[in-house]
Amino acid sequence: MCSDDGCCCGDSHGRIQRFIEPCLLLLLAQKPTHGYDLIDKLSLFGFDGIDPGTIYRYLREMEKNQLVTSEWITEGKGPAKRKYELTGEGKEYLLSWQTVIKKNREILNIFLQELEELNFD
């Protein structure tokens, strides 16, 4: 049975939490930036109101796996900020996500087509 918001896919947006990782890598491929900027831009992919701690855990893990690098920026107003940047390994990993996502898109399109043919209206 579906919840009040109409979704029965495990969370209110029907998204896969692991999808945060390729989204972060894509955003960093577009432009090296700070964590809070990444958090703001994740709304483009349906991740609204996400806990900043979750994002920073992903960033630390990706840095540990050499997918991103970071450096402290101390210039300018306010406190120091950590700026993240995609590495060559990160780019390769992002491209492997592209392959997986394309295949999943094909499977989801087949699923939706089969479901629409049932005419449950």
Structure description:
- The chain has 121 residues and is mostly helical.
- It has a single domain (17-117), classed as Winged helix-like DNA-binding domain superfamily/Winged helix DNA-binding domain (Arc Repressor Mutant, subunit A).
- It is built from 4 helices and 3 strands, in the order αβααββα.
- The protein has helices at residues 20-30, 35-41, 52-64, 88-117, and strands at residues 33-34, 68-73, 81-86.
- Strands 1-3-2 form a 3-stranded antiparallel β-sheet.
- Helix 2 packs across helix 3.
- It is elongated and about 60 Å long.
- The chain starts with 19 loop residues before the first helix and ends with a helix.
- Residues 1-8 have low confidence and may be disordered.
Per-chain topology:
Blueprint (H helix, E strand, L loop, with lengths): L19 H11 L2 E2 H7 L10 H13 L3 E6 L7 E6 L1 H30 L4
Antiparallel strand pairs: 1-3, 2-3
Helix pairs in contact: 1-4, 2-3
Beta strands, count: 3
CATH architecture: Orthogonal Bundle
Mean pLDDT: 88
Count of spatially separate domains: 1
Tally of individual helices: 4
Helix-strand sequence: HEHHEEH
Strand content: 5-15%
Q: How many angstroms separate the termini?
A: 17 Å
Q: In one word, what is the shape?
A: elongated
Compute the CA-based radius of gyration. Answer: 18 Å
Q: Say what oligomer this is.
A: single chain
CATH topology tier name: Arc Repressor Mutant, subunit A
Structural class: mainly alpha
Low-pLDDT sequence parts? 1-8
Main beta sheet strand tally, sense and closure = 3 strands, antiparallel
Order of strands across the biggest sheet? 1-3-2
CATH class: Mainly Alpha
Proportion of residues in helical segments: 40-55%
CATH superfamily: Winged helix-like DNA-binding domain superfamily/Winged helix DNA-binding domain
